[in-house]
Amino acid sequence: MPNVNAFEILDGEYDRGLVLLADHATARVPESYGNLGLDPSVFTRHIAYDIGVEMLTRKLAETLSCPAVMSTFSRLLIDPNRGEDDPTLVMKISDGAIIPANHPLSEEERHYRLDHFHRPYHTAVGGVLERVARQSGRVPLVLSIHSFTHAWKGVARPWHAGVLWDGDPRIARPLIDRLAAIEGVVVGDNEPYDGALKGDTMNRHCMETGIPHALLEVRQDLIGDEAGVNLWAKRLAPIFADLNDDPALHVIRRYPSRT
Question: pLDDT digits over 113-128, tens only?
Fold first, then answer.
């Protein structure tokens, strides 16, 4: 059995109707896997986890008194934000770094990681969503927190934050508008990535079920320390609270997916 849990649940007021998720919160790998054959320095990089997201999620959950679910394993082990049949579920190479323990990967090992890490995390997400729906008496509102690098392949990224979404605009559009209204903040609409990804966390738990949701990306250099986390939590908390306070958003509504 693995010697790290697959998830951590931050308890909050389940009757509020709001849930935070952090798919890539940490760079941890069970001791039995060593460093996956990598130099330990790799686990300080974005390829191992979303820098700043654990601190930001904890701060937002505390400020908003809402529950959150965070993964507790590195995405280099297995990526919880990928479908089980996605070819990038277990990366063999990431941003130039070859992961020796992932290539070759036997089917037995692939299923082991699914059974002990990927699936337990998603079971926990589903359980929290069910508990929030039961205790609040309404459909949950879900916000997934991620972060991205300030540059990619030598090209600077201009955005301070990005909102990723597929076919459901209910949370994404007002979130983009509110972020864009903050002086000096450049916000991306499905930048730096496209939010339509079959089998990912938002697709699986929200698009397919009709739960209102959005995925927020914050640039890593802006939340890499306590001061940055506090600033972004102060910016985001009232926006999230206002969205959650709108009863019109807490309904099941299915939209066509672009996947």
Answer: 999 999 999 999 999 9
